Amino acid sequence: MKVLKSAITLVIIMMTFGVFAQNEKDQKVIDAAEKAKMHAEKMNIGIDQYFKNASGYVIFPNVGEGAFIVGGASGNGAVYENGTLIGMANLKKLDVGLQAGGQTFTEIIFFETEEALKHFKEGKYEFSAEAKAIALEKGVAANANYKNGVVVFVLPKKGLMADVSVGGQRLAYVPMNQ
To answer: Half-sphere exposure (CA, 13 Å, Cβ side) for 111?
Structure first.
């Protein structure tokens, strides 16, 4: 009986630590997302209107990408609905083509309507190879348009990458209450 109690206690401690560790990781992503949002708004590029008017958005503050013929990228982000944090997301990308190098960037995805945000929250969300991200530069955001209720902005951080490839991004959403 003592062994069973000890095993149960150990499992509870491990589960508690796992939740704590996950919450700590999520909090780091949330803090970085908030900093990325403030940085993007300070750039005076017109992105503040997207933050104000979108039904929701996802901020991936640190996406890492690397490639040599076959490439991949991944990142974790924070999901907001009407400006309120509602969950976390992760991004995975795999592509093949003429590419080499590595880079890090911030990616912000805006959902124009409640329907577009709902579609994202319902499960795995994928961008096709035709989806184009808009590099955040002065004046660019003000002239960007939604396509199928979604617009994607990228703010390069570090690195250099030559890329002529075909691939897509897969996004997953995890509500805060899980």
So the answer is: 20
Positions of the chain with pLDDT under 50: 3-4, 6-21, 129-130, 163-166
List of domains in the chain: 35-175 (2.40.128)
Helix, strand, or coil here: 163?
strand
Which of 39, 44, 72 lies closest to 156, judged by CA? 39
What pLDDT is recorded for position 113?
93
40-89 confidence digits (pLDDT tens) = 888 867 788 899 999 999 999 998 877 777 777 889 999 999 999 999 99
CA distance 152 to 59: 10
Backbone angles phi, psi at 112, to 5 degrees: -70, -40
pLDDT in the model for residue 18: 45
Closest CA to 161 of 76, 108, 91, 97: 97
CA distances from 160 to 84, 105, 136, 156, 163 (A): 34, 11, 16, 9, 10
Look up the pTM and report it: 0.76
Tell me the torsion sign for CA atoms 36, 55, 123, 73.
negative
**Is the distance from CB of 170 to CB of 126 less than 8 angstroms?**
yes
CA-to-CA distance for 177 and 84, rounded, in angstroms? 14
